[in-house]
Amino acid sequence: MIYNLGSINLDYFYSVPRLPVAGETLATKEFSMGLGGKGANMSVAVARAGGEVHHIGSVGEDGIWAIDYLKRAGVDVSNIHSLQATTGHAVIFRDDDGENLIVIHQGANSMQDKDRIAAALLNARPGDILLLQNETNLQAFAAELGHGSGMKVAYAAAPFDVNALKEVLPYIQILVLNELEMAQLREQTGNRPEALGVDVVIVTKGSDGCVLYSKELGEKHVPAFPVNPLDTTGAGDTFTGYFLAHLDLGSSIEEAVLGANAAAAVMVTKKGTADAIPFALDVEKFLG
Ligand code: ATP
Protein backbone atom coordinates (compact mmCIF):
# COMPACT_ATOMS: atom_id res chain seq x y z
CA MET A 1 0.00 0.00 0.00
CA ILE A 2 1.23 3.48 -0.85
CA TYR A 3 0.26 6.61 1.09
CA ASN A 4 0.96 9.80 -0.83
CA LEU A 5 0.94 13.16 0.98
CA GLY A 6 0.82 15.40 -2.06
CA SER A 7 -0.34 18.46 -3.89
CA ILE A 8 -3.50 18.67 -5.96
CA ASN A 9 -3.58 21.49 -8.50
CA LEU A 10 -5.75 22.84 -11.22
CA ASP A 11 -3.41 23.49 -14.16
CA TYR A 12 -4.29 26.34 -16.54
CA PHE A 13 -2.34 25.97 -19.81
CA TYR A 14 -1.92 28.91 -22.17
CA SER A 15 -0.19 28.49 -25.54
CA VAL A 16 1.59 31.71 -26.43
CA PRO A 17 3.70 32.58 -29.50
CA ARG A 18 6.56 33.46 -27.11
CA LEU A 19 6.91 33.99 -23.36
CA PRO A 20 5.79 37.47 -22.26
CA VAL A 21 8.35 39.95 -20.91
CA ALA A 22 7.80 42.18 -17.83
CA GLY A 23 5.03 44.71 -18.41
CA GLU A 24 3.84 43.07 -21.63
CA THR A 25 0.27 42.03 -22.44
CA LEU A 26 0.11 39.08 -24.79
CA ALA A 27 -2.84 37.24 -26.38
CA THR A 28 -2.91 33.44 -26.03
CA LYS A 29 -3.37 31.04 -28.97
CA GLU A 30 -5.01 28.22 -27.04
CA PHE A 31 -6.24 27.47 -23.53
CA SER A 32 -6.87 24.24 -21.67
CA MET A 33 -7.32 23.08 -18.07
CA GLY A 34 -6.49 19.85 -16.31
CA LEU A 35 -5.57 18.10 -13.10
CA GLY A 36 -1.99 18.72 -11.98
CA GLY A 37 0.24 18.94 -8.97
CA LYS A 38 3.12 16.51 -8.52
CA GLY A 39 1.23 14.72 -5.76
CA ALA A 40 -1.92 14.14 -7.80
CA ASN A 41 0.08 13.08 -10.87
CA MET A 42 2.03 10.53 -8.83
CA SER A 43 -1.14 9.11 -7.29
CA VAL A 44 -2.66 8.70 -10.76
CA ALA A 45 0.57 7.03 -11.95
CA VAL A 46 0.54 4.56 -9.02
CA ALA A 47 -3.12 3.69 -9.68
CA ARG A 48 -2.60 3.30 -13.47
CA ALA A 49 0.40 1.06 -12.77
CA GLY A 50 -1.96 -1.21 -10.83
CA GLY A 51 -0.84 -0.12 -7.36
CA GLU A 52 -2.99 0.75 -4.35
CA VAL A 53 -2.68 4.38 -3.28
CA HIS A 54 -4.25 6.52 -0.57
CA HIS A 55 -3.85 10.21 -1.39
CA ILE A 56 -3.48 12.50 1.64
CA GLY A 57 -4.12 16.13 0.83
CA SER A 58 -6.54 19.00 0.61
CA VAL A 59 -8.41 21.10 -1.90
CA GLY A 60 -10.64 24.16 -1.63
CA GLU A 61 -14.38 24.16 -2.18
CA ASP A 62 -13.62 24.69 -5.88
CA GLY A 63 -11.64 21.43 -6.02
CA ILE A 64 -14.31 18.76 -5.67
CA TRP A 65 -13.84 17.92 -9.38
CA ALA A 66 -10.21 17.01 -8.60
CA ILE A 67 -11.30 14.56 -5.90
CA ASP A 68 -13.74 13.04 -8.42
CA TYR A 69 -10.96 12.78 -11.01
CA LEU A 70 -8.64 10.97 -8.58
CA LYS A 71 -11.45 8.67 -7.47
CA ARG A 72 -12.25 7.76 -11.07
CA ALA A 73 -8.54 7.07 -11.60
CA GLY A 74 -8.69 4.47 -8.81
CA VAL A 75 -7.07 6.51 -6.05
CA ASP A 76 -8.41 6.20 -2.48
CA VAL A 77 -9.61 9.74 -1.71
CA SER A 78 -10.92 9.26 1.83
CA ASN A 79 -8.02 11.34 3.20
CA ILE A 80 -8.44 14.31 0.87
CA HIS A 81 -10.15 17.12 2.71
CA SER A 82 -12.14 20.00 1.29
CA LEU A 83 -11.21 23.18 3.16
CA GLN A 84 -12.39 26.77 3.09
CA ALA A 85 -9.54 27.82 0.86
CA THR A 86 -8.57 28.04 -2.79
CA THR A 87 -7.48 24.85 -4.52
CA GLY A 88 -3.81 24.99 -5.49
CA HIS A 89 -3.32 26.02 -9.07
CA ALA A 90 -0.63 26.53 -11.66
CA VAL A 91 -0.66 29.07 -14.50
CA ILE A 92 1.46 27.64 -17.31
CA PHE A 93 2.56 29.55 -20.41
CA ARG A 94 4.05 27.42 -23.16
CA ASP A 95 5.62 28.97 -26.26
CA ASP A 96 6.10 27.60 -29.78
CA ASP A 97 9.59 26.31 -28.91
CA GLY A 98 8.27 24.29 -25.95
CA GLU A 99 9.76 26.71 -23.38
CA ASN A 100 7.50 27.32 -20.42
CA LEU A 101 6.94 29.73 -17.59
CA ILE A 102 4.99 28.51 -14.57
CA VAL A 103 3.54 30.32 -11.56
CA ILE A 104 2.07 28.23 -8.74
CA HIS A 105 -0.37 29.22 -6.02
CA GLN A 106 -0.15 26.62 -3.25
CA GLY A 107 -3.60 27.32 -1.83
CA ALA A 108 -5.02 24.38 0.13
CA ASN A 109 -1.82 22.35 -0.51
CA SER A 110 -0.05 24.34 2.20
CA MET A 111 -2.84 23.76 4.72
CA GLN A 112 -2.11 20.16 5.72
CA ASP A 113 -2.76 19.38 9.35
CA LYS A 114 -0.84 17.11 11.75
CA ASP A 115 -3.94 15.40 13.15
CA ARG A 116 -5.30 14.68 9.68
CA ILE A 117 -1.95 13.21 8.55
CA ALA A 118 -1.69 11.07 11.69
CA ALA A 119 -5.26 9.83 11.20
CA ALA A 120 -4.54 8.99 7.56
CA LEU A 121 -1.48 6.93 8.52
CA LEU A 122 -3.17 5.16 11.44
CA ASN A 123 -3.79 1.96 9.46
CA ALA A 124 -0.45 1.97 7.61
CA ARG A 125 1.63 -1.16 8.18
CA PRO A 126 5.38 -1.61 8.38
CA GLY A 127 6.68 -1.96 4.83
CA ASP A 128 3.98 0.26 3.34
CA ILE A 129 5.36 3.19 1.35
CA LEU A 130 4.93 6.84 2.29
CA LEU A 131 5.51 9.13 -0.70
CA LEU A 132 6.27 12.83 -0.29
CA GLN A 133 7.16 15.72 -2.59
CA ASN A 134 7.96 19.35 -1.88
CA GLU A 135 4.57 20.85 -2.71
CA THR A 136 2.83 20.60 0.66
CA ASN A 137 3.63 21.67 4.21
CA LEU A 138 4.40 19.12 6.98
CA GLN A 139 6.58 16.82 4.86
CA ALA A 140 9.11 16.33 7.67
CA PHE A 141 6.36 15.65 10.22
CA ALA A 142 4.87 12.97 7.97
CA ALA A 143 8.31 11.52 7.16
CA GLU A 144 9.20 11.15 10.84
CA LEU A 145 5.83 9.61 11.63
CA GLY A 146 5.98 7.16 8.73
CA HIS A 147 9.58 6.20 9.46
CA GLY A 148 8.72 5.69 13.14
CA SER A 149 6.01 3.20 12.24
CA GLY A 150 8.25 1.19 9.93
CA MET A 151 7.06 2.59 6.60
CA LYS A 152 9.46 2.99 3.66
CA VAL A 153 9.63 6.73 3.07
CA ALA A 154 10.17 7.95 -0.51
CA TYR A 155 10.84 11.58 -1.39
CA ALA A 156 10.64 13.22 -4.79
CA ALA A 157 12.76 16.32 -4.24
CA ALA A 158 10.79 18.67 -6.47
CA PRO A 159 10.47 21.59 -6.59
CA PHE A 160 14.00 21.46 -5.21
CA ASP A 161 14.76 23.12 -1.90
CA VAL A 162 17.85 22.02 -0.05
CA ASN A 163 16.43 22.83 3.39
CA ALA A 164 13.25 20.86 2.74
CA LEU A 165 15.40 17.91 1.64
CA LYS A 166 17.67 18.16 4.69
CA GLU A 167 14.62 18.05 6.98
CA VAL A 168 13.35 14.76 5.56
CA LEU A 169 16.74 13.17 4.84
CA PRO A 170 17.07 11.34 8.20
CA TYR A 171 13.79 9.52 7.57
CA ILE A 172 13.86 8.54 3.89
CA GLN A 173 14.97 5.31 2.19
CA ILE A 174 14.21 6.30 -1.42
CA LEU A 175 15.07 9.60 -3.10
CA VAL A 176 14.10 10.52 -6.67
CA LEU A 177 15.34 13.72 -8.26
CA ASN A 178 16.15 14.95 -11.74
CA GLU A 179 19.56 15.88 -13.07
CA LEU A 180 19.09 19.58 -12.43
CA GLU A 181 17.97 18.97 -8.85
CA MET A 182 20.96 16.68 -8.29
CA ALA A 183 23.28 19.39 -9.62
CA GLN A 184 21.71 21.91 -7.22
CA LEU A 185 22.14 19.48 -4.34
CA ARG A 186 25.81 18.94 -5.16
CA GLU A 187 26.41 22.65 -5.56
CA GLN A 188 24.80 23.46 -2.24
CA THR A 189 26.06 20.58 -0.10
CA GLY A 190 28.94 19.03 -2.04
CA ASN A 191 27.22 15.66 -1.58
CA ARG A 192 27.29 12.94 -4.19
CA PRO A 193 24.13 10.73 -4.36
CA GLU A 194 25.85 7.76 -2.72
CA ALA A 195 27.00 9.93 0.19
CA LEU A 196 23.49 10.93 1.24
CA GLY A 197 22.94 7.88 3.44
CA VAL A 198 19.75 6.94 1.52
CA ASP A 199 19.27 3.28 0.46
CA VAL A 200 18.14 4.05 -3.09
CA VAL A 201 18.75 7.29 -5.01
CA ILE A 202 17.48 7.66 -8.57
CA VAL A 203 18.56 10.58 -10.72
CA THR A 204 16.34 10.92 -13.79
CA LYS A 205 18.02 12.32 -16.89
CA GLY A 206 15.25 12.89 -19.44
CA SER A 207 16.06 11.24 -22.78
CA ASP A 208 19.20 9.77 -21.21
CA GLY A 209 17.13 7.59 -18.85
CA CYS A 210 18.27 7.51 -15.25
CA VAL A 211 21.09 6.57 -12.91
CA LEU A 212 20.36 4.32 -9.96
CA TYR A 213 22.52 4.45 -6.83
CA SER A 214 21.71 1.65 -4.44
CA LYS A 215 23.53 0.37 -1.36
CA GLU A 216 22.79 -3.13 -2.66
CA LEU A 217 23.46 -2.71 -6.41
CA GLY A 218 25.96 0.16 -6.61
CA GLU A 219 25.70 2.66 -9.47
CA LYS A 220 23.86 1.72 -12.63
CA HIS A 221 22.87 3.74 -15.69
CA VAL A 222 19.56 2.66 -17.23
CA PRO A 223 19.06 4.11 -20.74
CA ALA A 224 15.72 5.59 -21.78
CA PHE A 225 13.54 3.93 -24.40
CA PRO A 226 13.96 5.68 -27.76
CA VAL A 227 10.71 7.52 -28.57
CA ASN A 228 9.70 10.74 -30.32
CA PRO A 229 8.69 13.00 -27.43
CA LEU A 230 5.71 15.33 -27.83
CA ASP A 231 5.34 16.72 -24.31
CA THR A 232 7.62 15.79 -21.41
CA THR A 233 5.62 17.57 -18.66
CA GLY A 234 4.99 15.13 -15.84
CA ALA A 235 7.50 12.52 -17.06
CA GLY A 236 9.22 12.57 -13.67
CA ASP A 237 5.92 12.14 -11.82
CA THR A 238 4.97 9.19 -14.02
CA PHE A 239 8.41 7.65 -13.45
CA THR A 240 8.18 7.99 -9.64
CA GLY A 241 4.59 6.73 -9.41
CA TYR A 242 5.33 3.69 -11.58
CA PHE A 243 8.61 2.94 -9.82
CA LEU A 244 6.99 2.88 -6.37
CA ALA A 245 3.91 0.98 -7.54
CA HIS A 246 6.13 -1.76 -8.99
CA LEU A 247 8.24 -1.91 -5.81
CA ASP A 248 5.11 -2.15 -3.68
CA LEU A 249 3.77 -4.93 -5.91
CA GLY A 250 6.93 -6.95 -5.23
CA SER A 251 9.26 -6.09 -8.14
CA SER A 252 13.00 -5.79 -7.60
CA ILE A 253 14.52 -2.30 -7.78
CA GLU A 254 15.90 -3.00 -11.28
CA GLU A 255 12.54 -4.32 -12.55
CA ALA A 256 10.78 -1.32 -11.04
CA VAL A 257 13.20 1.10 -12.77
CA LEU A 258 12.62 -0.66 -16.09
CA GLY A 259 8.83 -0.36 -15.71
CA ALA A 260 9.13 3.29 -14.69
CA ASN A 261 11.39 4.10 -17.65
CA ALA A 262 8.95 2.44 -20.04
CA ALA A 263 5.88 4.18 -18.54
CA ALA A 264 7.60 7.58 -18.68
CA ALA A 265 8.67 6.94 -22.31
CA VAL A 266 5.06 6.16 -23.29
CA MET A 267 3.91 9.25 -21.39
CA VAL A 268 6.18 11.71 -23.22
CA THR A 269 4.70 10.65 -26.57
CA LYS A 270 1.33 12.10 -25.50
CA LYS A 271 0.20 15.65 -24.74
CA GLY A 272 -1.01 16.53 -21.23
CA THR A 273 -0.10 15.58 -17.67
CA ALA A 274 -2.46 13.41 -15.60
CA ASP A 275 -4.49 12.46 -18.70
CA ALA A 276 -1.32 11.34 -20.51
CA ILE A 277 -0.16 8.91 -17.80
CA PRO A 278 -0.42 5.44 -19.38
CA PHE A 279 -2.18 2.37 -18.01
CA ALA A 280 -0.18 -0.75 -17.16
CA LEU A 281 -1.61 -2.50 -20.25
CA ASP A 282 -0.29 0.27 -22.57
CA VAL A 283 3.14 -0.06 -20.97
CA GLU A 284 3.11 -3.86 -21.34
CA LYS A 285 2.16 -3.48 -25.02
CA PHE A 286 5.00 -0.95 -25.47
CA LEU A 287 7.46 -3.39 -23.94
CA GLY A 288 6.16 -6.10 -26.29
P1 ATP B 1 9.07 16.70 -15.26
O1 ATP B 1 9.54 17.78 -14.33
O2 ATP B 1 8.70 17.20 -16.64
O3 ATP B 1 8.04 15.80 -14.68
P2 ATP B 1 11.63 15.57 -14.75
O4 ATP B 1 12.61 16.63 -15.12
O5 ATP B 1 11.33 15.37 -13.31
O6 ATP B 1 10.29 15.75 -15.57
P3 ATP B 1 13.04 13.79 -16.53
O7 ATP B 1 14.38 13.47 -16.01
O8 ATP B 1 12.94 14.80 -17.63
O9 ATP B 1 12.10 14.17 -15.30
O10 ATP B 1 12.32 12.47 -17.07
C1 ATP B 1 11.91 11.43 -16.19
C2 ATP B 1 11.97 10.12 -16.93
O11 ATP B 1 11.09 10.17 -18.07
C3 ATP B 1 13.33 9.77 -17.51
O12 ATP B 1 14.14 9.15 -16.53
C4 ATP B 1 12.94 8.83 -18.64
O13 ATP B 1 12.64 7.55 -18.14
C5 ATP B 1 11.62 9.45 -19.15
N1 ATP B 1 11.86 10.39 -20.27
C6 ATP B 1 11.90 11.75 -20.20
N2 ATP B 1 12.15 12.29 -21.42
C7 ATP B 1 12.26 11.24 -22.27
C8 ATP B 1 12.51 11.12 -23.68
N3 ATP B 1 12.70 12.20 -24.45
N4 ATP B 1 12.53 9.88 -24.21
C9 ATP B 1 12.34 8.77 -23.46
N5 ATP B 1 12.10 8.82 -22.13
C10 ATP B 1 12.05 10.03 -21.54
Automatic annotation (TrEMBL):
Q: Which Pfam families match?
A: PfkB
Q: Activity regulation per the record?
A: Activated by a monovalent cation that binds near, but not in, the active site. The most likely occupant of the site in vivo is potassium. Ion binding induces a conformational change that may alter substrate affinity.
Q: Which GO terms describe its molecular function?
A: oxidoreductase activity; ribokinase activity
Q: According to its UniProt record, which residues of this chain constitute the active site?
A: D237
Q: What is its main location?
A: cytoplasm
According to the entry, every stretch annotated as the Carbohydrate kinase PfkB domain falls at: 5-278
Q: Name the family.
A: Belongs to the carbohydrate kinase PfkB family. Ribokinase subfamily.
Protein name from the UniProt record = Ribokinase
